[in-house]
Design a protein that fits this description.
heterodimer; A: 276 residues; 3-stranded antiparallel beta sheet; two-stranded antiparallel ribbon; disordered N terminus; B: 486 residues; mainly alpha; two-stranded parallel ribbon; two-stranded antiparallel sheet; 15 helices; 54% helix; disordered C terminus
Chain lengths: 276, 486
């Protein structure tokens, strides 16, 4: 088996690369990744002694760190980093993207928080999932007791236009509880994003308080203490306590780490004299 | 490009083939209606169908006409070889049987079909002749146009309209074969050879920095690079060398394959995942690669790529949208019903005029019957449909709503457990082992975080279409990022 002379495989995706130039980069026909030409030097175009580290997105020249300009550009909402050389026409062709402030990027680097953020996400997320699942079990259990057992008489009823509708308070209040738990779950996932961490941590704490009060009030309103078998109530309470505790810990962590990040960004801006 | 390597899309099918598909489906629907009619007539003890013979006829009609016509008609216009062969065989059989029927009964043969209080006279001889002619046309067309309607064996056919549209517009690159390629980079290795390659390949080397093969995943030392090419030690494929000659950020033992499109750092195949190209002519037809951090939206300058977070305001849009869906269904039903009504109007009006002209005894009864039929058609059917939908909605919507909430919870559990980041290296090996193309994984959460995508796609496609039009009109070609610069 011999290799086809003019056809090589892309090192990134394996697509076919047609070598068009001997001393310039060619591009993969599949993913457009640049691939070195067979006799192309691997060194910087401007500094023949220095190994190239980047390739200009405009002219395709190989560049060392000294010759590189990095930019961040917006493609329909997706921000991408591009690299161009310092030739005027390449700069002009790249002006759709804004130059990247590498010093600010370094000062704003938040990799230090990766481990903590992972734990916070899992703690808050785990707690919120427990709350969500048990809210779902709560409504199913209540509906079952209302419509399929004699315990329905324990629960309050509402009168709408002179008509008594059994189970209406359960449906309305429990659906509200489910929606609140879902909102809690969504907020719990937001803590993973640097920018939203502080805000979502505070919001999470606030929503948790509302959810806790609402949940306890529902228990009292539905006379759950009067249930002959306390298992249902105890199970719900245990789940609620575990879920609420996890969310509480997670949200405090999110507020703490989020605030540290806020201070880090503030200091970075101050140091570089950037506006807020 | 060899014919078998060409990619066909559903838009490549000729109109004649589409017509044949619709014609067969129409025959199938008529056959199904006739089957239902026979079953109903037998059930109510029609004197024309004694001793349960109606059920036998219904079964024969269903198995002989309805089922094959609907099945073959559904597939024949999808550029499928077997369906075309089945259609030719079926058309030949139909022609033979109907021809025999014509020979025995003649062209003038009529059937009188009861319909409630009325009778319809069907010129079954003429209908048979129509079937013979149409099936002859079908056979002739399929044979003459064989090369246009049957793609070569092994050729890829994109039948999904959305994917075909993206492919036609150059936004979906060709997928790879889910098998290890031979050293020519083209032909697939046998199963046995593939297994052998996967068994011997290594992901490390004692000879310094290595390049991970995009074909088999094996690591070949960089010292073996010759004229910026590297022959994989395990599968023999000739790999190009990426334009960046720096180690991977996370694995210094590997040469970086390319840069992350978002943060611009260098990574190997184990650290990158692939995403659909950004919709812009500058990047058309290309895939972008992202590292895990950027995929998860952790890179500060560009957090918009996140796949983790569901925007709060979008939370209930999916679940809540189901409420409006029922209304939408009813609206569409009324629209379609109104369209059909235009034609249905004729029937009761003609009946009324026929009753008026008849002037015989019992005219009042007939007239009342026709009026009742009109009332049923115009008022009762939409009303019943609306009530049924409403009743269904009351039961179904809460279930769907809660199903939505449960789905959100499951997604959240997945996110908490592990993100859906899949490296291109892992996906490649998985596809080889499982012998199927890796499915493009679309997170249920992503559409909500990529609300810009649909409108941006539209803009890009419009721009692309305009560019093509300009080119075809011989005007100055539009700028193309890669083509122009290199």
């Amino acid at each position: 088996m011999s290799a086809t002379p003019d056809m090589i495989s892309c090192p990134v995706c394996g697509g076919k690369v047609l070598i068009e130039f001997d001393d310039k980069v060619s591009h993969c026909g599949y993913c457009a990744s640049p691939v070195l030409g067979p006799s192309q030097s691997r060194n910087c175009t401007n500094h023949p002694d220095v190994l190239a580290k980047e390739v200009c997105h405009v002219c395709g020249d190989l560049l060392c760190e000294e010759c590189v300009e990095k930019r961040v550009g917006d493609y329909g909402g997706k921000l991408l980093t591009i690299v161009n050389c310092t030739r005027p026409d390449c700069i002009a062709a790249s002006d759709w993207a804004k130059p990247l402030n590498e010093e600010y990027q370094r000062l704003a680097n938040m990799e230090w928080a990766d481990r903590a953020d992972n734990i916070i996400l899992r703690v808050t997320g785990g707690g919120a999932v427990i709350m969500m699942i048990f809210e779902l079990i709560f409504i199913l259990g209540m509906l079952f007791m209302q419509y399929f057992t004699s315990l329905g008489s324990l629960f309050p009823t509402w009168v709408v236009a002179g008509v008594v509708i059994p189970g209406l308070p359960i449906i309305v209040l429990m659906v509200m509880g489910n929606l609140l738990a879902a909102f809690l779950l969504q907020t719990a996932l937001q803590v993973y994003v640097h920018e939203r961490q502080l805000g979502s941590g505070v919001l999470l704490l606030f929503v948790l308080i509302i959810e806790a009060v609402f949940l306890l009030w529902r228990g009292l309103y539905f006379n759950l203490r009067q249930l002959p078998d306390p298992t249902f109530l105890l199970t719900l309470l245990s789940a609620f306590i575990i879920g609420a505790f996890l969310i509480l810990i997670g949200s405090i962590g999110a507020i703490y780490i989020g605030n540290k990040k806020r201070i880090q960004l503030k200091r970075a801006r101050e140091k570089l004299g950037l506006s807020a | 490009m060899p014919e078998k390597d060409k990619v066909y899309t559903i838009f490549d099918r000729p109109r004649g083939l589409r017509f044949i598909g619709l014609l067969q489906m129409a025959f199938g629907v008529v056959g199904l209606l006739a089957t239902i009619g026979l079953v109903v007539a037998s059930f109510f003890g029609s004197s024309e169908l004694p001793g349960g013979i109606g059920y036998v006829y219904a079964l024969l009609l269903f198995v002989g006409v309805s089922l094959p016509c609907l099945t073959i008609g559904n597939y024949v216009d999808d550029l499928r070889r077997n369906a075309v062969i089945a259609q030719i065989i079926y058309s030949l059989a139909a022609m033979g049987l109907v021809g025999l029927f014509l020979f025995m009964r003649g062209l003038q043969y009529m059937w009188t079909v009861p319909l409630f209080e009325f009778e319809i006279v069907v010129a079954i001889g003429n209908l048979s002749a129509l079937i013979v002619v149409s099936q002859a046309f079908v056979i002739l067309y399929l044979i003459l146009a064989w090369s246009n309607i049957v793609p070569p064996a092994g050729a890829k056919v994109i039948r999904d309209r959305g994917e075909a549209r993206r492919y036609e517009r150059g936004l979906v690159p060709l997928p790879f074969t889910p098998a290890v390629l031979a050293s020519d980079g083209m032909t697939e290795l046998s199963e046995e050879d593939s297994r052998r390659v996967l068994d011997v390949r290594k992901e490390f080397t004692a000879e310094g920095m290595a390049v991970l093969c995009s074909n088999c995943g094996g690591a070949t030392p960089l010292t073996k690079v010759n004229r910026n090419r590297l022959v994989c030690d395990f599968c023999g494929v000739t790999l190009g060398v990426s334009s960046i000659f720096v180690p991977c950020e996370n694995h210094p033992e590997y040469l970086a394959a390319t840069t992350c499109a978002v943060c611009g750092n260098h990574f190997c195949r184990k650290c990158l995942t692939a995403q659909e190209p950004p919709v812009d002519t500058r990047w058309a037809g290309s895939t972008i690669f992202m590292c895990r951090n950027c995929f998860e939206g952790r890179y500060r300058p560009a957090v918009t790529t996140t796949s983790l977070v569901i925007p709060v305001d979008k939370l209930f849009s999916t679940a809540g949208a189901r409420f409006s869906k029922v209304g939408g269904i009813y609206r569409r039903f009324l629209g379609a019903y109104g369209g059909v009504m235009k034609h249905l109007w004729r029937l009761p009006l003609e009946m009324l005029s026929a009753i008026g002209k008849g002037g015989g005894g019992g005219g009042n009864d007939n007239c009342a019957g026709a009026l009742i039929m009109m009332v049923i058609i115009i008022i009762a059917i939409p009303l019943i449909a609306g009530l049924l939908l409403l009743a269904g909605a009351i039961v179904i919507i809460p279930f769907l709503f809660y199903a939505g909430l449960i789905a959100v919870t499951i997604e959240a559990i997945k996110v908490i457990r592990k993100t859906d980041f899949q490296s291109i290296d892992v996906v490649r090996i998985q596809s080889i082992v499982e012998k199927k193309m890796p499915k493009q994984k679309e997170s249920k959460l992503r559409p909500a975080t990529r609300s810009w995508e649909a409108s941006a796609m539209d803009v890009a496609w419009t721009r692309r279409d305009e560019e093509r039009r300009r080119r075809s009109e011989g005007k100055q070609p539009a700028q193309s990022f890669w083509e122009e610069r290199y």
